[in-house]
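quick one
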Amino acid sequence: MKKFFYNISSGNPGALFMPCFTSFLDGICKILPAALIFDVLNTIYLSFANPETPLNTTRLWTVCAILIGWMMIQYLASGFAYSKTFTAAYDASANGRTALAEHLRKLSLGFLGSRDPGDLTTMMLGDYATVETTISHYLPQLVSAAAFPVIAFIALVFINWQMAAAMFVALPFSLLIVWLSTGLQLRLGKNHVQAKVDSASRLQEYLLGMREIKSHNLSGERFQRIQEAFARLMRESIRLEGIIGPVMMVAIAIMRAGLTLMIFAGTFLLVGGELTLPVFLVFLLLGTRVFEPMTMVLVNYAEIRYSVLSAERIMQIRQEKPLPGEKDAPAGNSIEFEQVTFAYENTDVLKNVSFSISPKSITALVGPSGSGKSTITRLIARFWDVQGGRVLIDGRDIKNIDPEKLLTRISMVFQDVYLFKDTILNNIKVGKMNASREEIEWAAKQACCHDFIMKLPQGYDTPVGEGGCTLSGGEKQRVSIARALLKDAPIVLLDEATASLDPENETQVQRAINALVSNKTVVIIAHRLKTIRGADKIIVLEDGKVVELGGHEELLAKQGLYNRMCSLQQQSAGWSMKAS
Ligand SMILES: Nc1ncnc2c1ncn2[C@@H]1O[C@H](COP(=O)(O)OP(=O)(O)OP(=O)(O)O)[C@@H](O)[C@H]1O
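structure w/ adenosine-5'-triphosphate:
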């Protein structure tokens, strides 16, 4: 139970105290009228049972007045409970979603990459919505279902213990059925969650991959994958409701069998003169009321169990440890790899890699595709932690540095640029959130963006699509260079930064990059080797190992892999497409 409250409150069970307490008060307020009705029945009965006793109308009017006053109190109590539960529910989901988003940012990309893409979206939207409904709708029912029977049983035992026992005798059997079905519910719930995650992932894949689907005419096969995912979701939904529903119906029927037993016992006791009619009537009245919240809980039990699963999924991620390290980033900017071994999954991608990069120097990473160049830049930025060896900046192991502080010292320009669904101005501003418009325009000019931006309908205030789909590849690349210029970090990592630029822009962008990298520690990945001839150091990688290291001339003289790559590039420079 403690775990349930902890999980559905996203780790803040104290926030559920007020909704539970006010729901409890609200429930108590609903019980009192039954006691007053008992008094009314008793008063009327006394007059009918003893014809010489006149009907005590003063008492009846007093009870009516109390009931009217009580209605007001009950209305206020319900309103109060309603506002507290709904506020707590929306707080829990809004704060929870923000906290989860914040937490995700602190996790390694390795962890995020291991999750199904639809999984986190389902969690952010679906799981939090489920938890929200549980707090706003089911929590009050749970409180009433837990409190009512206990209070009612204690009160009724004092009135007539045989009747109370008859009313509640079936309840333990009903609860036993619910308990026995827990394992089944868990299994069905997990299958349903998995089906939901799969559907979200397939849908995401379908929408994001629309260009490939169209260009390769994959619509049939891809559409079938979505159809299958949705069909499975439908089957799991039916299974969840169709199997759990009848089980709960049996539990409800057994619980309510107590009422029938109570009527039998009441009739028996009434006939034997051991029970008065008003007491019998009060038991009948309370019998239906007491089991009402429990019936509601059992009707919604599948949903409640489902929300437990949702809350557990959320908490599992929330409890995932962020990358460790609290220290400030060092002032110096030298980089060193000390016998680094790294694997994304099981196969080592980098094997015993060692090299050092002096501050304010330019180091190029070259090597065949898949040799580990991009991986090295990602490890410098600590998107992942290494499994063996150390990555040092200014002589300090980056595992001990706060990842966010480390990233303030690093600018990155990736091959694939992501632009947010926002104005182009705000997209450049990502590099420095407090940058002035002048600074942004300066960076855009340096990165050769200014001219194309001014041609857009609203200039810098033109919205660009999610992922930057309304800009060309070259334009996106230049925007990302502008971001890096604005950030002005002392370490610059360039991954194929000029890959998608046309020859016309390339010279200008090279000039912009020169401005970006001057006086910085630069690590550059360039497939076009002519662009890195002037680098202070060239590290040649092959199959995750450093095979050559040195300056351009020195490496050419070695007649090794670098020399071969340069020769091949010279040959391919004269390549042109020919029709056969
Ligand atoms: N996120 C990932 N998960 C699993 N494996 C990965 C991941 N990223 C890269 N790899 C694998 O790691 C190896 C090195 O990849 P990396 O991107 O570092 O190579 P690269 O030299 O930069 O290649 P390219 O020049 O083609 O960009 C490759 O075999 C690649 O398939």
